[in-house]
Request: fold
Amino acid sequence: GENVEQHPSTLSVQEGDSAVIKCTYSDSASNYFPWYKQELGKRPQLIIDIRSNVGEKKDQRIAVTLNKTAKHFSLHITETQPEDSAVYFCAAYQGGSEKLVFGKGTKLTVNP
Amino acid sequence: NAGVTQTPKFQVLKTGQSMTLQCAQDMNHNSMYWYRQDPGMGLRLIYYSASEGTTDKGEVPNGYNVSRLNKREFSLRLESAAPSQTSVYFCASSTTTSVGNQPQHFGDGTRLSIL
Reply:
């Protein structure tokens, strides 16, 4: 089955800096990779996703890159703001199934 | 549209008691999921249902049962609650289109404490 590793587990940056979170996956048949943001006490919410036929996707200050050969994908947040502080989860669908496997999360703190 | 609705939002049980967590979605999604979230452990899949009439075990199914009542509703039952089941439980739903898997949408969660 699929296994998703996520690093780092905690990340602290100064406001305006960039933040990068990295994930690796094991199932070469995985083809869809969503990223979720979870604020304290709230539900996880999708912030960006990428499919295996695309190498990079951007949405304003957020971008995701995918390297299928190396089986890793990354989240990049530029010009970080205090409201970006949250836990971020990467995930990968197990190939050929409806099962989504999550990384263990990264707690991002943006210091004013 | 309400999206994914979970009830109750909070519950305190005594060890050995039983209860059912309810989940309903109004997005006409085929797939529904139950996760538990514990500090430092991320989201762990308990059970999922890829379509009405089917259910499959996830990573941590022991101590739980599920029922896919119809396309909209997917319930999670704890037959004999244990302190180790103290957690936040999330229900989610998703669908698959001609493009492929689509993102999961989550409910607000149920905070469950077992004393």
Remarks:
- Chain B touches chain A at residues 30-31, 33, 40-45, 48, 50, 56, 58, 90, 94, 96, 99-101, 103-109 (CB under 8 Å).
- The longest strand of chain B covers residues 31-38.
- The mean pLDDT of chain B is 93.
